[in-house]
């Protein structure tokens, strides 16, 4: 065994000289921190108070009292520092470093053998021990310094001092420190010269910060118009003077006035003359006026609630806005009760909604109001939108002609009452004429009214009108009569349906509140039974109303509405409620609440759909809509097939089961119906064999895409509405769809499945836009053909819709039977599972990058 001498021990200590030095420096830092932290705390507090200008805000006596206290504090903390500080020795550093290692190797290297030194075996053991200690010492690491003083500063005063000093650095100024000397008797003579301070405060609505002018050098200074400049001149009066040309003031105070405040309204200069003076060329940032515009014509809900979309913007934010509706008398059809001059009424003014939170510089909102009871409802008006910004600048749009939306009445008697109510509000001079018309209308009440009480209410209105026509009609009487007539029309329109609808609404609200408040299973089950009973009552009343509508149609030689749609509606509603109950039993309360909201919307739309049912031969527009719906379904099927082929291309054999399972619901395979020029393909697809799923069948998909493009071209040639805005918009959308189909065909023939799927998605979106434009054109044509209160469309579109406003067969709004139709047992669950599967596959790094990019685009779209 090698010997270990004292020279070796000294050499081992040299190997730890740098860890030893760093440990010693850490101990010095500890001693400084533990002894100087009170002194540093007092210094930071005093300096922060001076930089923030505390001495300028309080009396001189209090300043000097605080100065004495601060001086005593500095002396006390300085004495504490001298008393506590001790420079650590090298021996203490060795002891700390040695204590950080197991077995204290440094002490072992410095020790000598006192017992058994003459024994060779004992000496060998000692040398072996020192050798091991030397190896441990060679691995020594510096001991970190312990700078914690929390046991000596339990109230964290040091952190308060650092925080206050940081605030002083941000919002204070080191120049304020010297102002203490001016508080001494004759101290002003000690200063180097007069001083000044200034601030430029932007208007609050701009959101811009205040500028401290002492930090701004000579040169250009940009501030918003309306900024307030505040200057304070200190020192001998007249040593500093101010001259400015930005405020446009006529009553200018003396240039040497110590306090100068003025508002910037124009470009100019601001100059402080004297020691330490500055000069700025001020440029005003103009405040642009706000802008506002109507995005599109208003739309109305089933019960007359108007939705008017608009957009507004301003450089600093729109503060408020309003919509002003004025009667367009020149566009009113002056007939019946509207032939005489109308009474003067003020413009209808409503405030515009603005974002509650977020940026108001550029936003889009919807004005949602119900003007059904207003005298101008369903009459031509002109609307002006105005916006106001923080600078009180206002912008108003040009008048836009529109018809003020209001509720439509389909019951003939209710429509007659509402029309006479409109004439009464148009001019009270119509009261005599109105009473005669209503008396003639109610001549045979048993043939018109379902309840005798309704006939009595109408007679009461007639008597009041006749009395007021004789003795005069005040404004209050006019309003009371209008309210009576409105309530009567609602009762006549809704009849017994109103009570059933109210019970249904209460049942829906109670169930919704129970879901939100976490009610027990028994309570939810009872509320669900109540909802079912209310729904059954409501549907029975709807069927009775449909029978009355059928009788009226028979009297007018109209064909009877299809009652199968009503029976199908009952089945759909029962199935939907079963689905809601199933979701609640499974604990999926969020989905149950969403399904309940959809049920509420469907029930709200039921009465309007019932009133709009009519019969007639299928129009060219409906034929075009039906063809486009079929084309959209075909395009969806081709896109689904291309997606499965893309998956099979990267994972052969992995998607076969999914393809077969999806074959029956994608709409592109197994269909017995086909377009012209596609019959052979429809038959080829209908066999359901594995050949249709072959990944190598891109050529056949391209041929089918080509045939679908030819069919779309044929449909474009037969599209009605040429020369109308709606027809032109539909044709433009179909042109885009055709170009996207051509690109998809080319991509399929080039074996670019991912690009083909993107092009097919663009084609489907364009088809939907074309169908929307075509539907709007058809609705406008119906309104132009049968204008007036209570008019009904007499085409075949209503026949194809059930009282819920949906296409027969649960087709979607675009005509395609999607996976979320009401007859699907688990539509929402499968949609969620599909999204989860797409997310899972997009996160698998083993999949090809092209496939993962496509899956991510799917997630971004849906």
Question: What does this protein structure show overall?
Answer:
The chain has 862 residues and is of the alpha+beta class. It has 24 helices and 17 strands. Strands 12, 13, 15, 16 and 17 form a five-stranded antiparallel β-sheet that branches. A four-stranded antiparallel β-sheet has the order 2-1-4-6, with no helix packed on it. A four-stranded mixed β-sheet has the order 3-8-7-5, with no helix packed on it. The two termini are 78 Å apart. The model is unreliable at 185-191, 556-568, 611-617, 654-699 and 786-825 (pLDDT under 50).
Shape: extended
Evaluate the radius of gyration: 44 Å
Count of helical regions: 24
Major beta sheet summary: 5 strands, antiparallel
What is the end-to-end distance? Answer: 78 Å
* Low-confidence spans: 185-191, 556-568, 611-617, 654-699, 786-825
Q: Helicity level, as a percent range?
A: 40-55%
Mean pLDDT: 75
């Amino acid at each position: 065994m090698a010997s270990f001498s004292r020279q070796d021990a000294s050499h081992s200590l040299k190997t730890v000289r740098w860890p030893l030095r760093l440990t010693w420096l850490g101990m010095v830092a500890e001693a400084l921190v533990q002894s100087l932290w009170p002194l540093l705390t007092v210094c930071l507090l005093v300096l922060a108070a001076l930089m923030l200008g505390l001495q300028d805000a309080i009396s001189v006596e209090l300043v000097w009292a605080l100065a004495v206290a601060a001086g005593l504090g500095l002396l006390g903390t300085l004495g504490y520092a001298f008393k506590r500080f001790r420079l650590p020795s090298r021996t203490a550093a060795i002891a700390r470093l040695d204590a950080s290692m197991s077995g204290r190797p440094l002490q072992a290297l410095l020790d000598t053998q006192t017992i058994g030194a003459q024994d060779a075996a004992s000496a060998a053991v000692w040398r072996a021990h020192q050798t091991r200690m030397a190896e441990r010492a060679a691995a020594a690491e510096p001991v970190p310094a312990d700078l914690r003083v929390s046991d000596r500063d339990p109230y964290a005063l040091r952190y308060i001092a650092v925080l206050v000093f940081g605030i002083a650095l941000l919002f204070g100024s080191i120049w304020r420190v010297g102002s203490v000397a001016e508080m001494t008797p004759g101290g002003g003579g000690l200063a180097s010269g007069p001083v000044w301070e200034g601030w430029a405060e932007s208007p609050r609505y701009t959101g811009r910060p205040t500028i401290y002018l002492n930090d701004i050098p000579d040169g250009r200074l940009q501030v918003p118009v309306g900024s307030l400049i505040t200057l304070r001149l200190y020192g001998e009066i007249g040593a500093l003077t101010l001259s400015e040309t930005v405020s446009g003031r006529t009553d200018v105070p003396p240039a040497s006035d110590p306090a100068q405040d003025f508002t910037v309204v124009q470009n100019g200069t601001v100059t402080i003359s004297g020691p330490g003076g500055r000069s700025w060329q001020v440029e005003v940032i103009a405040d642009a006026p706000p802008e506002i515009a109507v995005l599109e014509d208003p739309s109305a809900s089933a019960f007359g609630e108007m939705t008017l979309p608009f957009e507004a913007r301003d450089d600093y934010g729109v503060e408020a806005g309003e919509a002003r509706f004025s009667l367009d008398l020149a566009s009113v059809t002056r007939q019946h009760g509207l032939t005489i001059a109308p009474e003067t009424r003020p413009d209808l003014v409503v405030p515009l909604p603005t974002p509650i939170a977020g940026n108001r510089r550029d936003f889009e909102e919807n004005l949602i109001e119900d003007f059904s009871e207003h005298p101008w409802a369903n009459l031509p008006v002109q609307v002006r939108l105005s916006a106001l910004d923080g600078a009180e600048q206002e912008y108003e749009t040009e008048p836009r002609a529109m018809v003020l939306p209001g509720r439509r009445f389909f019951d003939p008697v209710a429509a007659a009452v509402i029309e006479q109510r409109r004439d009464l509000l148009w001019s009270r001079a119509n009261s005599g004429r109105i009473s005669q018309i209503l008396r003639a209308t109610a001549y045979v009440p048993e043939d018109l009214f379902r309840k005798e009480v309704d006939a009595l209410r109408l007679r009461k209105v007639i008597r009041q009108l006749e009395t007021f026509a004789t003795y005069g009609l005040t404004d209050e009487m006019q309003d009371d009569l209008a309210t009576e007539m409105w309530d009567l029309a609602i009762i006549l329109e809704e009849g017994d349906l109103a009570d059933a609808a109210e019970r249904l609404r209460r049942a829906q609200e109670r169930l919704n509140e129970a879901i939100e408040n976490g009610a027990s299973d028994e309570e939810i089950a009872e509320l669900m039974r109540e909802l079912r009973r209310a729904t059954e009552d409501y549907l029975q009343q709807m069927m009775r109303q449909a029978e009355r509508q059928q009788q009226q149609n028979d009297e007018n030689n109209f064909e009877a509405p299809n009652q199968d749609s009503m029976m199908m509606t009952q089945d759909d509603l029962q199935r939907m409620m079963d689905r809601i109950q199933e979701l609640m039993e499974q604990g999926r309360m969020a989905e149950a609440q969403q399904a309940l909201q959809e049920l509420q919307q469907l029930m709200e739309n039921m009465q309007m759909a019932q009133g709009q049912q009519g019969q007639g031969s299928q129009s060219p527009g409906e034929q075009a809509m039906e063809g486009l719906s079929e084309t959209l379904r075909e395009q969806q099927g081709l896109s689904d097939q291309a997606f499965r082929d893309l998956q099979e291309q990267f994972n052969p054999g992995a998607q076969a089961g999914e393809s077969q399972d999806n074959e029956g619901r994608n709409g592109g395979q197994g269909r017995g119906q086909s377009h012209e020029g596609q019959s052979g393909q429809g038959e080829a697809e209908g066999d359901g064999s594995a050949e249709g799923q072959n990944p190598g069948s891109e050529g056949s998909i391209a041929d089918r895409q080509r045939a679908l493009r030819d069919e779309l071209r044929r449909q474009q040639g037969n599209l009605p509405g040429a020369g109308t805005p709606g027809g032109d918009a539909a044709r433009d959308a179909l042109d885009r769809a055709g170009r996207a189909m051509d690109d998809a065909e080319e991509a399929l023939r080039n074996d670019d499945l991912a690009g083909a799927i993107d092009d097919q998605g663009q084609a489907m979106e364009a088809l939907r836009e074309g169908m929307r434009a075509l539907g709007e054109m058809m609705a406008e044509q119906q309104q132009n053909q049968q204008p007036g209160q209570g008019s009904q469309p007499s085409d075949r579109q209503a026949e194809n819709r059930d009282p819920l406003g949906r296409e027969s067969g649960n087709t979607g709004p675009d005509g395609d039977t999607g996976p979320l139709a009401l007859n699907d047992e688990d539509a929402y669950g499968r949609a969620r599972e599909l999204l989860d599967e797409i997310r899972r596959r997009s996160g698998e790094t083993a999949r090809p990058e092209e496939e993962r990019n496509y899956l991510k685009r799917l997630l971004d779209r849906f």
